[in-house]
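The protein record filed here.
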Amino acid sequence: LGASNFISRIFSSMDSCPSDSTPSYSSVELAFDLLWCCKDVSEGQMVSMVHFILSAGTSGEFARVLVQYKKKLDLSDTILASCKKCMSLQKAEKLSPSEQSIQKTLASKLTLEVVSMLMKEIINYSDLNGALLRRGMAESFSRKELLVLARVLLKFVSQFGASSKATRRLLHIMSAVCDSLRAFSPLTGEETVTIEVLQKKLKEELSFTQILAPLQATLRGLSEVVKADKMAKVSESHNIGSSSMTVAEYQIERLVL
């Protein structure tokens, strides 16, 4: 995972500026831009991105990037309002106890939103190698980060088509998270429940996919038959129309049908 460590070092160097200044280009922006612009981001690098954002990202950075990429990420008005509220609180010289509580809530909300958006890009990026995912997670993620990631992934269940590539990738990631959590011992109550929920969702999704799989070939066959039939009708209609013989409209209809 040398390349993944390289990505981590880049992220760290980008976020090493003084806390009272705003970087012109942040690690969160880099993560999204890599997935949008590069065709060969590895599983290890993806894990490094998510890990760094979970462990070192700030709510102010999340808010700024979400507002900047609002159109590309198709953000809701609710999330945009949360971003603006977060940025306004950051500018305040002193916060009241209630404002501090609001800021903490917004930080959690924006963290989940950024990780959700990033995971959606990863799911739609390319096919994933489960072994490399597990290795990357084992080397990078803490227990707490895995729990956050599990929470995000469960939101995506049933959002994609049952037999789509995105669903298969989602199941690969969920399985990797489940196995990575199991590696910790002893498990806490929350971790045990999370593993059980992940296993249940994996079983449900896999069962549904297996039910639909035999139908896919039949549906493809029907689609080809319909397509061939349409082409035959168009060809026949064209041949009749180009004939020197005048044929009444109703006769053409009968011939075609």
